[in-house]
Design goal:
about 750 residues; alpha+beta; Ubiquitin-like (UB roll); 16-stranded antiparallel beta barrel; four-stranded mixed beta sheet; about 45% strand; elongated
Length: about 750
């Protein structure tokens, strides 16, 4: 340094490190060494200005401030006369970030994480931050159970003070759980406790299961499920003392040990209600899920709180709170429960605000509301409103929030965010169904015509069995009271022989007018008068049963029909419901004055039970009966019942069950019985989806020539597994069934599917 100073002195230049120079007044400030950073940026951070008196003791402060910006790897201060010279060495800029080898964590997620710590294209490179990011990346993979992950980070220098960051990841394999052991359990076996775990050893048949993939978050959820199990069984003092996760030396296998202390089981000695009871105590008492003598259960206490809160909400107390206060007797292991009720202030709904409806008129949604503006808040009316909105075919989802009105304690607003789905479509499609062969359809439909909620459809459907032309229009609110009215015009050509039933063809031209009348919130009545002209065509292979009927009654028929239907529907959704039931009674009749006189009556019942989230049990049953009257000799053959196939008894060919004609082809019958049970669940190898589900099913049914011919021994049954997918191109249904009691004459079909047909 002395040599440099001597040379400078010899040159006559007074250039000194400011730390060694006397104090001076700054006449100017120069910044040297900048390449990309503007001088103004440096001046912004400098704590001194031109005209300030520079003191040597401030050198360390100035250097520290500039280092703190992260822009520079070296900073020094010097003086030339009364000019302050700031010399810097810029950190390199990041030119590009290249990431390879990552599969479990997406590249976008990694680049976002890098950006949060200041590592991104165009930014200043900070090696310390990169090292910190490398450590965080390892922790992310460890949390996913990949303990043998290897992350290599390289920095490549480029011209003009730039660098490329290269991150090469070898994720390795997920450490698999070989055993989960619970220590300290006396009341329940390991198998009983581990049954609720998401972590563990999968059963032998679960080929795609990820149950043995370790995840810290998944294990935390399992521990909470374990705690809930004991608290629901009365073990109030249950604790998890420790959890050990042991990794094998090769980092591929895991052993989990959970040490617990069960404590003692407690029972409920007394249950009381306290606080401000705005509803009769006897009525509230009936809502409680717990009673004296029961084992203490946190789940049933929570259910009791929800029931009480919901009941108070129906009286307008939107913000009621119910707090269970336990009095514990450790000596006798008993608990006295007091539910303290604080209803708060009664409120009414000031406004109902809809958002998200870009295509639908506001009134279309308001007419579905059961909670009225200006009325007392009602939790049940609001919930029913939500269900009615989400049942609309042009609504994808409904988000309903209750918001207090600022400055007012007795008013709330309802904010309802609607997500609409496309309600209009022009579809040209093709598909295949085993029962109908190749399908072609073309339709122009609008479920929400000009945002009015009215339905309009013009369609053409063609298959090897049917060719259908149809035009329909429905106004679901023809009157303000919710009476609907619809029109339907159609023409249908059917070749029954291609369905492998009795050999004949028919051409049917018809029109009808339909009125739907709501009786209650869940009950409705529908009347449909109509007219249909039917022409029957025969061939050389038409059976004698049909020829005899046609010889007696003719081959062309004018039918005046009057149909009526009563429905009780509490399902939460029309498609893929989780809970609720549907009961429907239908009467179809050809009224006096028609060329043929007959009637058909049927009863259908569907009931859905949500056993737990994503697991639903469905029970179905249907009975149908038809009979002739007047001068008609029998129920027309084209109105008879059939069974078998994807919509009745799977595993048997479509329409194949029941009586046969003289050609040994299915002929149909006057009486049909169908029933079944189905357990719905999401596919085990995919995330839960509202448009995809699988099921285990048990189907049973049969068609009989008449009611007097019914015999329980003739009912056919099958069991199997099914899959349904509401895809963008149409509904896809698949089933693999095994017939349980088939007879030699039955036509079996284990695998059945429909692609592109209507759902």
């Amino acid at each position: 340094m002395r040599t440099v100073l001597m040379l400078l002195c010899l040159l006559g230049v007074a250039l000194l490190p400011v730390a060694q120079a006397a104090d001076f007044v700054i006449d100017d400030i120069e910044v040297e060494g900048l390449q990309r950073i503007a001088p103004g940026t440096v001046f912004t951070y400098l704590p001194v200005r031109v005209g300030d008196r520079f003191e040597a003791t401030r050198s360390a402060e100035i250097v520290r401030v500039l280092f703190r910006t992260g822009f520079f790897s070296d900073v020094s201060l010097q003086r030339r006369d009364n000019i302050l010279i700031v010399r810097v060495v810029e950190r390199p800029a990041i030119n590009e970030i290249r990431i390879s080898g990552n599969r479990d964590i997406k590249t976008e997620q990694l680049t976002d994480a890098l950006r949060q710590v200041g590592i991104a294209r165009g930014r200043v490179f900070n090696r310390t931050a990169l090292e910190r990011m490398e450590s965080e990346l390892l922790q992310q993979y460890f949390a996913r159970g990949k303990y043998n992950v290897n992350v290599e980070v390289a920095v490549e220098d480029l011209p003009r003070n730039r660098v490329d960051i290269v991150i090469d990841i070898n994720e390795g394999q997920v450490a698999r759980i070989q055993r989960v052991n619970i220590v300290g359990n006396q009341a329940f076996s390991n198998d009983a406790l581990l049954r609720r775990f998401s972590s563990g050893v999968p059963p032998w048949y679960a080929f795609f299961s990820r149950r043995d993939h370790y995840s810290k978050q998944k294990l935390a959820g399992d521990l909470e499920a374990l705690r809930s199990r004991y608290l629901d069984e009365g073990f109030v003092n249950f604790t998890i003392d420790s959890t050990q996760v042991t990794l094998t030396p090769d980092r591929r296998d895991l052993y989990i040990t959970i040490n617990i202390n069960e404590g003692e089981r407690y029972t409920i000695s007394d249950v009381r209600l306290a606080g401000e009871l705005v509803v009769e105590a006897s009525e509230l008492q009936e809502l409680l899920e717990v009673s004296p003598g029961d084992t203490f259960s946190r789940a049933r206490i929570t259910a009791s709180i929800e029931a009480l809160t919901r009941r108070l909400g129906n009286e307008g107390y939107a913000f009621a709170s119910v707090n269970p206060i336990p009095e514990v007797d450790d000596e006798r292991r008993r608990i006295e429960l007091t539910f303290f009720v604080d209803p708060g202030q009664r409120v009414y709904v000031r406004r109902i605000n809809f958002s998200g409806n870009q295509r639908t008129r506001d009134e279309v949604f308001r007419r579905e509301m059961r909670q009225m503006e200006g009325g007392w808040y009602s939790a049940s009316a609001i919930e029913r409103s939500r269900v009615r909105l989400q049942r609309l075919s042009f609504v994808e989802s409904v988000d309903l929030q209750t918001r207090r009105v600022p400055g007012l304690s007795d008013q709330v607003d309802l904010d309802i965010a609607i997500t609409e789905r496309l309600s209009g479509s022009f579809v040209v499609g093709a598909g295949y169904a085993q029962s109908q062969g190749a399908l072609f359809n073309m339709s122009l439909s609008q479920e929400n015509f000009f945002g009015t909620g009215n339905r309009v459809s013009l369609a053409f459907n063609n298959s090897r069995i049917n060719r259908i032309y149809s035009l329909s229009y429905t106004n679901p609110y023809y009157t303000l009271d919710g009476v609907s009215r619809g029109f339907n015009l159609y023409y249908r050509e059917t070749d029954a022989s291609r369905a492998e039933i009795s050999r004949y063809s028919s051409n049917r031209l018809g029109a009808d007018l339909s009125y739907g009348i709501p009786l209650t919130e869940y009950d409705s009545l529908r009347f449909t008068p109509g007219f249909e002209r039917i022409e029957i065509l025969t061939s050389e292979r038409t059976p004698g049963e049909i020829l005899d009927f046609l010889d007696q009654h003719g081959r062309t028929f004018n039918i005046y029909s009057l149909n009526a239907a009563f429905a009780h529907d509490t399902r939460n959704r029309i498609v893929f419901p989780d809970y609720g039931n549907l009961q429907r009674v239908v009467l179809e009749s050809a009224v006096p004055g028609s060329d043929l006189e007959y009637y058909k009556a049927s009863y259908q019942h569907q009931h859905y039970f949500q056993l737990r989230p994503a697991l639903t049990l469905g029970m179905t049953g249907e009975v149908g009966y038809g009979k002739h009257y007047g001068d008609t000799s029998e129920l027309p053959f084209f109105e008879k019942y059939f069974a078998g196939g994807t919509r009745s008894v799977r595993g048997y060919k479509d329409y194949s069950l029941g009586p046969r004609d003289s050609n040994n082809d299915p002929f149909g019958g006057d009486f049909r019985v169908i029933g079944g049970a189905e357990l719905f669940f999401p596919p085990p190898f995919m995330d839960e989806s509202p448009n995809l589900r699988m099921s285990f099913f048990l189907d049973a049914g049969q068609v009989f020539a008449g009611y007097d011919d019914f015999a329980a021994d003739d009912i056919r049954a099958s069991t199997g597994v099914g899959l349904s997918w509401l895809s963008p191109v149409g509904a896809l249904t698949f089933s693999m069934a095994h017939a349980l009691n088939d007879k030699p004459q039955d036509r079996l079909q284990a695998f059945q599917f429909t692609i592109g047909a209507s759902f």
